[in-house]
Amino acid sequence: MNRLISQQHRIRSLGEEMSSLLLAYQLRGKKVVVIGAGEVAAGRVKACYDADASIIEVYGKDVHPDILALEEDGDRTIEIFEGAVRPENVDLEGVSLAFTAIDDRKLSAEFVQLFRNKNIMCNAADIPELCDFYFGSTINRGPLQVLVSTNGNAPRLARRVRQELEHTVDQLGMEGAFAKVGKLREELRKMTVTGEEGYDPQTVKKRMKWMSHICDKFTFSQMAALTDKDIGKLLALYPQKVSYSDIRPS
């Protein structure tokens, strides 16, 4: 009995330590709603804009200049409904994600309840207990995305951690490494496609094992330095285990 209680306590403890599931959510082709139009709301709009949300609806008064600038850019659809806003006036048809960024906690709670009634995940700025997800401090370097989250406990410290990581990412040339390895992976996939549907379990397994070897044995700087000619040499050696010296002899 004591052992069972101990195991249950350990499971609860692990659950408390890992209380959020970190995901990279794809917004391309989706509609989002932002309640509020101030500085915090502008940050939410920019984040969704950069993530290729197809429609961003903004409800609020005194619209921040950054939101207006994005609207004028015209690369995404940003619809601004200016003025005082109430839950009953917001169109939630087809909305995938929602945000509140207003100073009124009671009104934010009303919106959150509205969103949840519609099964729409939402984030309420500065009210962690009402959030279905949190905004972390992010690093974006080409295909590389790193999220640092404190589950709403210490956003400022998350920013410091991000700054430390940014230095390491830039120092090691990780952005270039991810881009080159992505190209190698895509060219290898094209070269090894088999069958009518282009999928063979054994081929996929062998391909993944070889790519894992490249990622484990090459340094970030070596991967970043790969040229198209180098990638061609690597593909010619597939599925042999290779080292950097095989394509760049000393």
UniProtKB/TrEMBL annotation:
EC number: 1.3.1.76
Molecular function GO labels: ferrochelatase activity; precorrin-2 dehydrogenase activity
UniProtKB keywords: NAD, Oxidoreductase, Porphyrin biosynthesis
GO annotation terms (biological process): siroheme biosynthetic process
Pfam families in the record: NAD_binding_7, Sirohm_synth_C, Sirohm_synth_M
Pathway the protein contributes to: Porphyrin-containing compound metabolism; siroheme biosynthesis; sirohydrochlorin from precorrin-2: step 1/1
Catalysed reactions listed for this entry: precorrin-2 + NAD(+) = sirohydrochlorin + NADH + 2 H(+)
Residue stretches making up the Siroheme synthase central domain: 141-167
Cross-referenced Gene3D superfamilies: NAD(P)-binding Rossmann-like Domain, Siroheme synthase, domain 2, Siroheme synthase, domain 3
UniProt xrefs under InterPro entries: Met8-like, Met8_C, NAD(P)-bd_dom_sf, Sirohaem_synthase_central, Sirohaem_synthase_N
Siroheme biosynthesis protein Met8 C-terminal domain location: 174-241
Keyword Glycoprotein: no
Stored NCBIfam families: cysG_Nterm
PANTHER family (UniProt xref): SIROHEME BIOSYNTHESIS PROTEIN MET8 (PTHR35330:SF1)
Record's protein name: precorrin-2 dehydrogenase
Annotated organism of origin: Trichomonascus ciferrii
Highest classification ranks of the organism: Eukaryota, Fungi, Dikarya, Ascomycota, Saccharomycotina
